[in-house]
Amino acid sequence: MHLLRTLRDYPDGGLSVTDLARLTGLQRPTIYRLLAALLEEGFAYNIGGTKRFAASNLAETTILDQDPRIKLALPTMRELAAETGDAVFLVVRDDNESLSLWREIGPYPVQILATFAGKRQPLGVGSGGLALLAKLEDDEVDSIIARNSKQLEQYGGMSSREMRQLVDNTRTRGYSVVGNYAVRGALGVGCALCDKEQRPYLAISVTAITDRMPATRQRKIAGLIQEKLNTLAANL
């Protein structure tokens, strides 16, 4: 799946085995073996006359069918990636963790790929997860932070008190801002969408290098995300 997602993230012109080794960290023999399986099942194809490979439409359709939240958010994520130039992430809550479902990569030449589909981390560590956490009631927030307290230390030495302050800041601001905890040199802005019962349903975040995220741009991006989430809310 990591190989397949990497192929899908670079659709223009495809990727060579050397490219895939660099991007995934996998050994070339492993990549050849996995590519053979993807080609045989129709999830990837060889670009004619080259030694480059790309993900097929079947691959995307299959992944989209896995979770309705991906299908709902994908057009919005692609719009945001194009408008901001940066990486856009779809994150949901799974008990006391955040789960990344999808990412879209913008055209800006320097990208911070802070997470990938399938990655889990303590709820609140990333900007999407923090936006989700801040939508919960106080007693639930405190319970989740307590359960995650030992893991939080692995993210830049974050403490439970710091996490609680980030939640309060997010509520005051109306959107989350997280920098240098999960990924050094990155700063993310996130907003959450709630369902009809006012439970957090999904979050969308935009992450870039810190230099691209002054406060004025943070507010602008948060406004873009929230505007698009308001449109999605009508489809819930």
- Low-pLDDT runs of 5+ residues are none
Total beta strand runs: 9
Instruction: Report Rg.
Output: 18 Å
**Mean pLDDT over the full residue set:** 89
From the spread of the alpha carbons, the general shape counts as globular
* Tally of individual domains: 2
> How is the CATH topology of the largest domain named?
Beta-Lactamase
The side-by-side strand order for the widest beta sheet comes to 6-5-4-9-8-7
Structural class: alpha+beta
Largest β sheet strand count, sense and barrel closure: 6 strands, antiparallel
CATH A-level architecture of the largest domain: 2-Layer Sandwich
Keywords:
236 residues; alpha+beta; Beta-Lactamase; 2 domains; six-stranded antiparallel β-sheet; three-stranded antiparallel β-sheet; 9 helices; 9 strands; 47% helix
